What does this fold into?
Amino acid sequence: MEEVIIDYSQKPEVKNPILIEGLPGVGNVGKLAAEHLIDKLEAVKFADMYSKHFPPQVLVGDDGVVRLVNNEFHLAKAKNDATNDLIILVGDYQGMTPEGQYELAHKILELAQEFGVKKIFTLGGYGLGKMVKAPRVLGATTDQNLVEEMKNFGITFTKGEPGSGIVGASGLLLGLGKLVGIDSVCLMGETSGYFADPKAAQAVLEVLTSILHVTIDFKDLELKAKEIDQMTTRLKDLEESIMESQREDLNYFG
Amino acid sequence: MEEVIIDYSQKPEVKNPILIEGLPGVGNVGKLAAEHLIDKLEAVKFADMYSKHFPPQVLVGDDGVVRLVNNEFHLAKAKNDATNDLIILVGDYQGMTPEGQYELAHKILELAQEFGVKKIFTLGGYGLGKMVKAPRVLGATTDQNLVEEMKNFGITFTKGEPGSGIVGASGLLLGLGKLVGIDSVCLMGETSGYFADPKAAQAVLEVLTSILHVTIDFKDLELKAKEIDQMTTRLKDLEESIMESQREDLNYFG
Amino acid sequence: MEEVIIDYSQKPEVKNPILIEGLPGVGNVGKLAAEHLIDKLEAVKFADMYSKHFPPQVLVGDDGVVRLVNNEFHLAKAKNDATNDLIILVGDYQGMTPEGQYELAHKILELAQEFGVKKIFTLGGYGLGKMVKAPRVLGATTDQNLVEEMKNFGITFTKGEPGSGIVGASGLLLGLGKLVGIDSVCLMGETSGYFADPKAAQAVLEVLTSILHVTIDFKDLELKAKEIDQMTTRLKDLEESIMESQREDLNYFG
Amino acid sequence: MEEVIIDYSQKPEVKNPILIEGLPGVGNVGKLAAEHLIDKLEAVKFADMYSKHFPPQVLVGDDGVVRLVNNEFHLAKAKNDATNDLIILVGDYQGMTPEGQYELAHKILELAQEFGVKKIFTLGGYGLGKMVKAPRVLGATTDQNLVEEMKNFGITFTKGEPGSGIVGASGLLLGLGKLVGIDSVCLMGETSGYFADPKAAQAVLEVLTSILHVTIDFKDLELKAKEIDQMTTRLKDLEESIMESQREDLNYFG
It folds into this structure.
């Protein structure tokens, strides 16, 4: 069978399209951001991507109907001030092997070229391994000019970050995209990486929407962030009360 | 060499065929059920499937003659009330890698399309990790209408079960089958998953034969189930007597 | 690059050829036996087989010249009573993955068919996990008639041995060979499996040469077997003297 | 996508080219040596090699611009006494799987043949697992005459070294190169293997430049070697002072 299958429900007309990728990864930042964008811009799915490089697995919906694990392309037509149609890529998994990652990124870029995509934004998380109060958004691009352009939107470019490079779809789309001449930017929201991180997703989206001249509300993400804040606060309180009681026990014997 | 080889001993004529898959998996429920069906319906093998995605292994029969590990297609012609010829797929192994799983499922569906198969039933176990007295049969389908149809046969569709989806051939045949337009149903018998489970296989077959208007007897499966019940009872008794004697020892020192 | 490369130094004329495979495996029985046969029959190498399914490695000779790891085909022309030319396959490695094993076996069979090979003998060890005084030779074949024929040469066919089938080249050549209609026999010498086992290799060769009407001397193998016997005896003596001295120490304190 | 992509920035004219490979490996000896050679001979990159057999990763430069992980071909035109143009291969990674290693070496040899390369030198380290004062350079070649030729340059050919052969690109280019008739030499600098080893790289380069009639200075490598010497000396001193203070503590209690 083919390495990767693109299954169109409809082949849409697009104008000045920009591709936005948000697949699962560190803190699920990219996925959360892209799904929020699809939701708020009422983007419409126009193609499924299946591949033997995904797990051999179906997911079962609440109605008992199965769906083969996949990646999906959604289209949000330009509205108001925006001048670019957006093709938004989300999905259940990234490729399971290095070769699979390359095959999938290669196919995504073929689709991008077919639709005349001139710019790609890949969204992801930058794992710090500790709690982050106000996540910065780090950037990497295919081009020096793009770096300067992106700095105007508050994106951080720091020497040596990320030190080990960018692994997976968010990196490969830039690397392979550069080879076929597509300007591309990776936006990485700082995150602990301990859980799905809506705060980092919002930070990434605030920058991205400003670049795209798009206005969306962030209430859902803010709500999710608040829930997680409360949860972590409760955990910290619990931890402290346990330590406190232990200290009292020690005093008792002291 | 080819990814997958279908080796026909004969290419049979089939009418209104339904494909039934029962390969090794959780509690070997699918395999036990499909093999019992082949046995009782006196289905006849018409093709072997070999693949480099199976282990590089031959099995040696009691007569000293080898057989390359494979999957097999058997045909049971419709009898009495039944209106569908049945193509029953059994075998030694599933594909050893994700890519192999996809290649094999793809080939099975090619064969299904060639024979005009309009519906697929995949049989499997749903592992609970604890003993099951009266196993339910859970279902998943490619289509909302099929869910409603299947509920009439006592199949359980519960929100969130199976939560992690269906992995392997039983899932892939539904997922890839849906893409080529073949209505498909997965039947999963509840099982501890600790051993080959004839009781779960019987539960699955009772539902399946009722759907197919087929009558078979279950004596062999019932016998196997009884043997396993006795074995587990003996194990439990042994366990209890050991615990009892330990308790007595403790009393002695008490 | 191609999956498997056959590099002929010369394409020989062969009459009634039989293929004999002896690649590394349990107790290196097959490899020892096939190399001894090449040596004693003064077989001449006529082709190398290279593959990306072998390790990415060269071996360095004592003269400083490298050799890419490979498998080799040698030809021993029929002499005296023998009526079959022998194509003998030996090598450094078997394929490193299941897919690789299949690709290599497939290519070997293509070569066998090209040369008109009518029968294949694969040589291997049957690991018992304990020392063996007089190793039996177990057999498995592609055909019931062959089983009967082989029994005349003292080959053992026992129900349930080997229970888990035959894994690797020695099995696959039978399994895939059967599909293309080549009669094949696997000869397995019983071995502890703890070290390269010349005694098991000799047992296999005694049977094989008798089948082939070939006479060779076994001095080299007998010598190697004696060395290993002495080594294991010395180890056992050492072990016993240590245990003895420990017992005396205990008496001293007793 | 293709297994391996060669992306030329320019297709250079070359005269009597020799290919020199220095990819990551034991003690990074080959990579250090080849990069030093590129630097000192002011070699110019003329092609990038990308592959799905490398990790799915981009590296981010200090300027925020990404680069897909790759291997690179550089050209140093012959100067002064030298009669050979040099094609120097360096890179971030070797292939991640055995199959990938073969595919990459195969492609490199295709390029070598296209440019009429008549000789290949592969550079690497020979790990000893202990500190080396004056590293020897061990050799291996595709040809007995080459061994004699190389001995004149002080290269060591010792029976049984390296005992396990040569694994990876440095070995495969010789092994596969031999099959297509390219004379090839592997030069291995002795190294502890504990860290990137500039001293071993210098030893390899001293031999290589003498063979190629090329003169370069080694100041940078000598400096790096001195730094590492100082670091290891400091570590040893620290270790000894700790042991000394422990001995004094023991005396105190003594």
Summary: The helical segments of chain B are 29-40, 98-114, 144-151, 169-179, 198-212, 219-253.
